[in-house]
Amino acid sequence: MKIAIIPARGGSKRIPGKNIKLFHGKPMIAYSIEAAQKSGCFDNIIVSTDDQEIADIARQYGAEVPFIRPAKIADDHATTMDVMQHAIGWCESQSMTVDLLCCIYATAPFISSDDLAKGLALISTGDIDYAFSATTFAFPIQRAISLNDNGSVQMLQPEHVNTRSQDLPEAFHDAGQFYWGKVSAFKAGKPFFSLCSKAILIPRKRVQDVDTLEDWEFAEALYAVMKV
């Protein structure tokens, strides 16, 4: 079996109700559920939540909510791995034979069903633990700066102060959308970012982290432009 797990706890502080807040007319979580459905990759699409309102809305959009997530893994310190391992434990308690899991974040309005399918193909054929979406940094990370307490700046990698941008290797970052993985890798708590993982590269225009109100506003503006 191939199962999607969508972590969606309640109690978001920076953006209250973030997972079900309306984004261009639909609850944010609906975009992840619908992409998973459209991909045709999954036998089950399960939302892991501690919040009844999130559970009700998830079911309205066709996801399953067969359990309520325990409070001990629904606070600010709970990790994605905690949630995935709990979901695996529940599946095993139901005698479900799961081969591959995909963690899909609930706040990923630019997620693509095609990218999910590419991830499945990659994890199915490669000798890897995980496959996840990633994109390029817009600016060379080797020329990043930091600010000290009095506002002065310093380079994080001063050895590159005179290196031309075009001579620096390109860097990539997690797109924060989905992580396909083998059950054995999730159960062992293996890290997502290692030589045993591969990336599905997507354009920067389809990547936006949504953690703050500024992020949300930018994502809404970007989505509006993308849909024109």
TrEMBL record:
One MF annotation (Gene Ontology) recorded for this entry: N-acylneuraminate cytidylyltransferase activity
Keyword check for rRNA processing: no
E.C. number(s) listed in UniProt: 2.7.7.81
Pfam families to which the protein is assigned, alphabetical: CTP_transf_3
InterPro entries reported for this sequence: CMP-NeuNAc_synthase, Cytidylyl_trans, Nucleotide-diphossugar_trans, PseF
Keywords: Nucleotidyltransferase, Transferase
Cross-referenced PANTHER family: HAD SUPERFAMILY MEMBERS CMAS AND KDSC (PTHR21485), N-ACYLNEURAMINATE CYTIDYLYLTRANSFERASE-RELATED (PTHR21485:SF6)
Designated name of the protein: Pseudaminic acid cytidylyltransferase
Gene encoding the protein: pseF
